[in-house]
């Protein structure tokens, strides 16, 4: 029900610039109904292009497939800023 996002179901390229206002409006409508929401989770792999627009508009943390993957990978890697260093093999 977001104008232009039906391209996903059709297997077509999504016009991100055209769809972005509809995604923002959809989230705004949800937040007006549930104002206690403190973070946004975008579960679809087609949604990361809208994450920054949502962060800017609502000043809430936005988690998508990319940020969640980065989080997972970073939890398994050496942190060179402190602690034991070079304890694992290079990737």
Task: Walk me through the structure.
Helices cover 46% and strands 4% of the residues. The longest helix is centred in the first third of the chain and has 18 residues, at 16-33. Strand 1, helix 3 and strand 2 form a beta-alpha-beta unit. With 91 residues, the protein is mainly α. The termini are far apart. The mean pLDDT is 93.
> How many β-strand stretches?
2
Tell me the major beta sheet: 2 strands, parallel
Estimate what percentage of residues fall within beta strands: under 5%
Overall spatial form: elongated
| Percent of residues in helices | 40-55%
Radius of gyration: 17 Å
Give the count of helical stretches.
4
- Unreliable spans are none
SSE sequence, one letter per element: HHEHEH
**Which class of secondary structure composition applies to the elements?**
mainly alpha
Would you tell me the overall average pLDDT?
Answer: 93
Ends apart, CA distance between termini:
42 Å
* Widest beta sheet: strand line-up: 1-2
